[in-house]
Amino acid sequence: MPTNSRVTEPSTNTGQIPKLRAPRTSQRMRNVELVLILGAFTISGLAILFVQLGALGHPDAHPFGLCLILVALVALLHITMRFVAPQADALIVPIALVLNGLGIAEIYRIDLHFKSQGWDALATKQIAWSALAIGAAFAVILLVRNHRILQRYTYTFGLVALVLLLLPVLPGIGTSINGARVWIQLGSLTFQPGEVAKIALAIFFAGYLVSHRESLSMVGRKFLGMRLPRGRDLGPIIAVWILTMGVIVTQRDLGTGLLFFGLFLVMLYTATSRVGWVMIGVGMIIVGALAANQFLGYVHGRFQNWYDAFNPDIYNADGGSYQVVQGLFGLAHGGLIGTGLGQGMPYITPVSQSDYIISSLGEELGLVGVFAILCMYVLLIARGLRIGFAGHDDFGSLLSVGLSFVIALQCFLVIGGVTRLIPMTGLTTPFLAAGGSSLVANWMIVALLLRLSDTNRRETRLVVSS
Amino acid sequence: MSELTLLIFRIAFLIALWVFVFFVVYAVRSDLFGDRVKKLVGSAKKSSSGTPNVFLSSTQTPAPSGPNLAPAPGSSSPRALQLVITSGPKQGESIALTTDAVSIGRSSDSSIVIRDDYTSTHHARLEYRAGSWIVNDLGSTNGTFLAGKKVTEPTPVPLNTPLSVGATTFEIRG
């Protein structure tokens, strides 16, 4: 086709990137997104309806009214994206929406059992936080027009992350809930700054690693057939390790600590492609875990609850394995296709709306349902990694790998903990669990991934077609 | 609500979840199986024995040195390099190389999108590492060839050396 119209500009010698517009593809992407968003609304609506039929026996129009706010916000987000990020990935928003909607339905189901209503109901709060989170995503899409701007503020983001991490330890605004000091309290509102810190950290790590990758990929001596990095380059990884241990010791939060270290390790590996770093990092995690098990009572308890969960002494102990075992009983009760929404007894497990929401959903949707949820996570994470893979600049690639890996690691730590594959670490299940800060942070990750994928497609520099 | 209705609803909901999952997978099918290929009218027959080889010989007529090949006015950097297409449908076109990676493939998020039968969705990637450009084949079906040799591992690309992706040949020129 010699009369191809896709190449709009002849190549020039200036370093400028010619902007190629492909309206047909972008319209197609947004239309696919629209269809999937409608599907996501349908599934969420059905979930709430079936919860009502199962638990109350009759439909109730009240919660649907609240959800209309979310529908309006998502519509606004979608329409805005048609203008400011037309080529963004079409699947990320729908998947996030389905997970968010399923979470609201299950939280609502547990509220129905405890007969909580109005602002006492966690579902109402979750809907309000979802609105805020989608608003935050909207703001990120509008404000961050090109992710390269973020690279300019690499060290600012590092500082922001550090401050956010320190906030809960400060007397006055920091508060402890269930033993972990990771919350700040402003009036009646509690917020977990560590959740937003993970985004700032991902940006900081990406910027830092892009400028230091050359020295970090230098190899030192060989050990067991593996090339280890040089001793003098160990500074950053040790600094992050100390930060991690600091979070674990001062905030008594195992999950967040592990999340940060895992994030750094994966981004370091992606930037340098040296397996040696992974080995060193895993070694440091093992050392840290053993030390924490030895010296920190709460970590030791977690290990015991995991290792010897069905021991009656541990099961009956205060802060023992009652919770994790009830979660397992719930999953077992669900079996293959579940008890049906609203018909199980997920409320027996303590905090079944947040940390243990996956066992609540597992009880009512069964193995088939949990696998569908896991598939959605896998697809979401795969989209993120794929955006990183296609990235044109190193910073953008590293950032998208880091952000999607945060979601992946968080899923692994929580779902692994609930299913007793690993000790429970106390993180939130992304998008599903009751918890505002986590929702806001994850929707901001969604917005950044959308922005990155849009940039990838916009920056096509030459189209060759015969 | 009768037991039977609830059972039907329960199963219907699980089916709805999975339909959603499969719809998403269907939408990303191009990632798994590659983009659809527009059938080329009267194009060369696809022979399995390395069709692109015609373009590989380094004695291939170089691209006409049009104005594109002159050094950029005002660019004083000695490393102002160009990626020039020396054969193929867009022969003579070039892009300026910055330090950003250049990805080549049929997918629309590549830096250089090549729509032909021989190019894979994500075919090859050029990256700037420690002062030189490294080419990496991303597991393409028909391979990436540097000076006639198949690229199997990240390989530095010297100046003025033909690099072939499908029916298109590139050279890095100073």
Would you mind describing this structure in some detail?
The complex is a heterodimer of chains A (466) and B (174). With 466 residues, chain A is mainly alpha-helical. Chain A is built from 16 helices and 6 strands. In chain A, the strands form 2 sheets. Chain A has a 3-stranded antiparallel β-sheet, with no helix packed on it. A two-stranded antiparallel ribbon of chain A has the order 4-5. With 174 residues, chain B is α+β, with helices and mostly antiparallel strands. Chain B is 17% helix and 27% strand. Chain B contains 2 helices and 11 strands. Chain B has helices at 3-27, 29-33, and strands at residues 81-87, 94-97, 102-105, 112-115, 124-129, 132-137, 144-146, 149-150, 155-156, 163-165, 168-173. In chain B, strands 2-1-11-10-7-8 form a 6-stranded antiparallel β-sheet, with no helix packed on it. In chain B, strands 4-3-5-6-9 form a 5-stranded mixed β-sheet, with no helix packed on it. The chains are: A mainly alpha (466), B alpha+beta (174). At the A-B interface, helix 1, helix 3, helix 14, helix 16 and strand 6 of A face helix 1, strand 2 and strand 4 of B.
Question: How is this structure best summarized?
Answer:
Helices cover 67% and strands 6% of the residues of chain A. By secondary structure, chain A is mainly α. A three-stranded antiparallel beta sheet of chain A has the order 1-2-3, with no helix packed on it. A two-stranded antiparallel ribbon of chain A has the order 4-5.
Q: What is the fold's blueprint, element by element?
A:
The complex is a heterodimer of chains A (466) and B (174).
Chain A: H1 23-55, H2 62-84, H3 92-114, H4 122-143, H5 148-152, H6 154-166, E1 174-177, E2 180-186, E3 189-191, H7 193-216, E4 219-223, E5 226-229, H8 235-250, H9 254-272, H10 275-295, H11 297-307, H12 312-316, H13 322-334, H14 357-390, H15 394-418, H16 436-458, E6 462-465
Antiparallel strand pairs in A: 1-2, 2-3, 4-5
Helix pairs in contact in A: 1-2, 1-3, 2-4, 3-4, 3-14, 3-16, 4-16, 6-7, 7-9, 7-15, 7-16, 8-9, 8-10, 9-10, 9-15, 10-11, 13-14, 14-15, 14-16, 15-16
Chain B: H1 3-27, H2 29-33, E1 81-87, E2 94-97, E3 102-105, E4 112-115, E5 124-129, E6 132-137, E7 144-146, E8 149-150, E9 155-156, E10 163-165, E11 168-173
Parallel strand pairs in B: 3-4
Antiparallel strand pairs in B: 1-2, 1-11, 3-5, 5-6, 6-9, 7-8, 7-10, 10-11
